[in-house]
Amino acid sequence: MHETRNSLRVVDVEEKAGPSGCECEIQLRGGTVAPGYRHRDDLTHEVFTSELV
Questions:
Q1: Looking at the 3D structure of the chain, how many domains does it have?
Q2: In the chain, how long is the greatest CA-to-CA distance?
Q3: What number is the average pLDDT over the span 17-32?
């Protein structure tokens, strides 16, 4: 079985851990999150926002 390492975090607008009840965003990262974008910088920058790249 292939092991994957993905990470998830919930952050506020300052990219700090968001406290319960605040308006936050979920950020995901890992090899299985968007596999078609790996080593495709042109496509990655076209689709994802600069905060996540």
A1: 1
A2: 38
A3: 80
